[in-house]
Amino acid sequence: MAEQQLTHIDEAGDVRMVDVSQKADTERVAVAEGFIAMRPETLELITSGAAAKGDVLACARVAGVMAAKKTSELIPMCHPLNITKAKVSCEPVREGQREDGLVGIHVVTTCGVTGKTGIEMEALTAASVACLTVYDMCKAVDRGMEIMDVRLLKKDGGKTGLWERSQGRE
Question: Helix 40-48 and helix 120-138: axis angle, to 10°?
């Protein structure tokens, strides 16, 4: 296997934004996920619409889209992208639906762009911020919520083409 190098580190060891000016524009898509575990009572507040701050899942979806659009302002070496697609889904997970027995909200994000560089960071940021928004809106009743499993599921496009997460870690 060829030696891989970190692209955001130059020959002198300094951080840099990668020069993508010579790369061709291609369609790129990334899918990421996250999970926020909570008490069953908290999940019931969310799904019944009884949360004091309003529609938690609608707010989380909007926050995820907004976060995808602002990713380059948060991640120092991330290129600003003209995002063409940002979708966030938030699905309740009830008892017995996960092997580990946790209940909560499963977030899946899909981001797309036609450009010179990938959109993985936008999908991951969207998933993270959607989970953080759920926490923010419900922390008054459940400070023990835990954000976990934020990870890239799939990316397609560019020179490296398709990558998909297998069942295990890679």
Answer: 100
